[in-house]
Amino acid sequence: MIRSMFLIPLRGFTPQIGKDCFIAPNATIVGDTVIGDGCSIWFNAVLRGDVNSIRLGNHVNIQDGSVLHTLYQKSTIEIGDYVSVGHNVTIHGAHIRDYALIGMGATLLDDVEVGEGAIVAAGALVLKGTKIGAYEVWGGMPAKFIKKAEAAQTNEINRKIAHNYAMYASWYQQPESAEVASLADPTENINHKQTMYKRILLKLSGESLMGQKGYGIDEQRLAAYARQIKQIADLGVQIGIVIGGGNIFRGLSGSQKGFDRVKGDQMGMLATVINSLALQSALESMGQKVRVLTSVRMEPVGEYYNKAKALRLLDKGNIVIVAGGTGNPYFTTDTASALRAIELEADIMFKGTRVDGIYTADPEKDPSATKYDEITYDDILAKGLKIMDLTAITMCRENQMPIYVFDMDTDGNLLKVISGQTIGTLVKP
């Protein structure tokens, strides 16, 4: 909702305001300023896009008395998504990435860069050209590095602040705008009755956990996955998870390099345990109850899996991560996912990948490949499409277990598929 009387066109530029924004009546927005969706610009805030451009992403809050300005022909302001700018902050030609927090009374001078999830403490003076890395905490006059924050926890804290301000903004809506949904949280408009599924099995790719790294776990990707999973857990959806281990070790490729196949597969099982523990830690830092069950005994790392225990935990609101594959060599985590989905009586198995569905060919290699919105198991087998191994496909087909393949790497997609939006490919009997 836009209520401001101070939207000022200048030099051929008119401020552009996205959907579902709150602009306080005495906020001033000038010239070449573009504001994304779901933002709030509070009382006495000034965004002066007169001498250069100002760009705000989605769900940004600029709090009371803050001033955003640039340097003519030299510096611009770029602010990412879910950024909170506290009261009486001065930003002059800085670039601020997603989920960052700028504390009250801070000053950021020209060409400052603030990384994703970083925190600038209240009253800090960040000098010209300073580069603040992702998830770093800086404070003082002049500002200096204080410590490295934990990514998942920091993202969650900064995200809550941004969502709280969206909620506050909704209080200012006119009665005639009451039908506009509250912005306090992206899950707020979807309750358990509106979700399509009571219980799901989510298969995650170990290789996707690498993110931009060539090996191991990318902390930002892990935090993004945890954030998406927490969103749907908050809706009351029961969630079982199986994670691959390809970011650490893949048994089949190991055997091709001289490892005994059984030993190689066992090493791959251990890799899935490492990934499962990492995801457990990320989710627990967000306040989510999580239990890791393992297909082979390895207490106290994880509890030994059985169906009855897993179902009890799910009914009590725990996310259950089943690590170690099937516990047997020669079986992939795709097969383990199919097995656990069937055992746990899931409504559907979601396969989160880096590709947005099933295509006629590999879209990363063939630009002419086209995507299926729906496809049957028989068609997959007939066309030789390699979305999962043959054992997993056969198990799902014989047990009438639908599979939904979607892009998990895009933030918010898991919430979309849970709510029934068509963004991937449904595999149905």
List the helices and strands and how they pair.
Blueprint: E1 7-8, E2 16-17, E3 22-23, E4 28-35, E5 40-41, E6 46-56, E7 61-62, E8 67-69, E9 77-79, E10 84-85, E11 90-92, E12 95-96, E13 101-102, E14 107-108, E15 113-114, E16 119-120, E17 125-126, E18 131-132, E19 136-139, E20 144-148, H1 151-170, E21 199-204, H2 219-233, E22 238-243, H3 251-256, H4 261-284, E23 290-294, E24 303-304, H5 307-315, E25 319-323, H6 333-343, E26 348-353, E27 358-359, E28 371-372, E29 374-376, H7 377-383, H8 390-398, E30 403-407, H9 413-418, E31 425-428
Parallel strand pairs: 1-4, 2-4, 3-5, 4-6, 5-7, 6-8, 6-9, 7-10, 8-11, 9-12, 10-13, 11-14, 12-15, 13-16, 14-17, 15-18, 16-19, 21-22, 21-26, 22-25, 23-24, 23-25, 26-30, 29-31
Antiparallel strand pairs: 19-20, 27-28, 30-31
Quick overview:
This protein has helices spanning 151-170, 219-233, 251-256, 261-284, 307-315, 333-343, 377-383, 390-398, 413-418; strands spanning 7-8, 16-17, 22-23, 28-35, 40-41, 46-56, 61-62, 67-69, 77-79, 84-85, 90-92, 95-96, 101-102, 107-108, 113-114, 119-120, 125-126, 131-132, 136-139, 144-148, 199-204, 238-243, 290-294, 303-304, 319-323, 348-353, 358-359, 371-372, 374-376, 403-407, 425-428.
Structure description:
With 429 residues, this protein is of the alpha/beta class. It has helices at 151-170, 219-233, 251-256, 261-284, 307-315, 333-343, 377-383, 390-398, 413-418, and strands at 7-8, 16-17, 22-23, 28-35, 40-41, 46-56, 61-62, 67-69, 77-79, 84-85, 90-92, 95-96, 101-102, 107-108, 113-114, 119-120, 125-126, 131-132, 136-139, 144-148, 199-204, 238-243, 290-294, 303-304, 319-323, 348-353, 358-359, 371-372, 374-376, 403-407, 425-428. It has 2 domains: 7-152, Hexapeptide repeat proteins (UDP N-Acetylglucosamine Acyltransferase, domain 1, 3 Solenoid); 192-428, 3-Layer(aba) Sandwich (Carbamate kinase), CATH 3.40.1160.10. It is built from 9 helices and 31 strands. Strands 1, 2, 4, 6, 8, 9, 11, 12, 14, 15, 17 and 18 form a 12-stranded parallel sheet that branches. A 9-stranded mixed sheet has the order 24-23-25-22-21-26-30-31-29, sandwiched between helices. An 8-stranded mixed sheet has the order 3-5-7-10-13-16-19-20. Strand 21 (199-204), helix 2 and strand 22 (238-243) form a beta-alpha-beta unit. Helix 1 packs across helix 2, helix 2 (219-233) crosses helix 4 (261-284) and helix 6 runs parallel beside helix 8 (390-398). The longest helix has 24 residues, at 261-284.
